[in-house]
Amino acid sequence: METILVVDDEPNYRIILEELLEDEGFEVLTASDGVKALEIAHETDIDLIVTDMQMPGMNGVELLAEAKKRWPDIPIIMVTAFGEIDKAVSAMQAGAFNFLSKPFKNDELIANIKKAIEHHSILRDNTRLRKEAKERCNFSGMIGKNRKMQQVYSLIEKVAPTRTSVLITGESGTGKELIAKAIHYNSDREKAPFITVNCAALPDTLLESELFGHEKGAFTGAISLRKGRFERADTGTLFLDEIGEMAIGLQAKLLRIIQEQTFERVGGSTELKVDVRILAATNKDLKEEVKNGTFREDLYYRLNVLNIHVPPLRERMDDIPLLARYFVENFSREMEKPTLTISQEALGFLTSLPWDGNIRELENTIERASILCNQNIIEPEDVQPDTLSANHPDIGAEINIDDLFRPDIRLPDILDAIEKKLLLRAMEQADYVQTRAAKSLGITKSLLQYKMKKFSIKKKPKA
Fold first, then answer.
1. For domain 3-132, which architecture applies?
2. Stronger pLDDT, 43 or 398, i.e. the higher one
3. What is the C-alpha separation between 264 and 195, in angstroms, rounded?
């Protein structure tokens, strides 16, 4: 349902236009002056503004100029009195979609409005598609040759052309949203919106408003009408991330819209119909949540028509070099470091780590390494992930720096000397068994071998 903002200082004229446009199936908001109109447009998704030319305070031309600064794609139809044609022409040059002279026929106004809304829809879709083209996900944009990932690709290919709801499961950071985008962009809805909402990011009351929208005055702070994610996703796809965090009461409303494709905004009584495909994701075991009574069984079966499980990174270690090189290429462009590379030793080291945070942790690790590495070459010492650096004991408080080091010694020399001594001690205590030495130091065997090479420490001294 398109929303039209009517701006005029004459109350009777606003009422007449409001009734006319509502009879045509439009949602109508009204304002008595330009300042109020800008406030409403800031708070509400507006599809068209119809404004009088002459108003006290901010007139229609000034409203046009300010609105075009803030929302250049919103069409504006100017209504002029007889004798203001020269001003109307100036308004057209300033970006007005069209102008109508009073008195005008109702059919003439409706025809202009429909043409303007169609024009706005095309502009909005073009803007959205240009933005989404940068993020577009298809099979070529998904990294991985692992057997389990090949099975995921096969499922995407089969389910994408259908209307079927899909439940995407997997640990945090495995790329569940990427799977959802791949389904959307390989479906016949690819040119329609792909809208995401994180069910864990908002409290229940705000999540309901975010999903379904709200009417003006529906609750404290609802100062204007707002369209929800379902309306914005109409004819497209809505991705419900972290669906397992949704409150049980809100699940009932979600179930209804999945079954009937209709809903009301919060505080409203008008039934709105939408055509939305639902994709959902969770890192929880929803079957267990059903047993515990925290997730509706009927909703679970509605969402889980088909399940796609995304494997954790530790189950697809052969993909780590591909993913790492992909991230290096991305950060090379973003940071304008065209010579940025990653060494084979670093790639080997990455495959030895647990990656509890999955692909997201790997990406963060590569980003940090891209900033900190020397000579634009990422080495093993640059790719220390968060999981290895957590929960360090604070030994700094026990060390008196002034007693240990002269003030003229450079920091790199100090660190190298300490590191080498610790490595030698660990190797001696482990009888030069590298696995035991690495464990005692709290590092991986791959990193130990890299540092032994760096400090020219032999595997075992000759007797």
1. 3-Layer(aba) Sandwich (3.40)
2. 43
3. 19
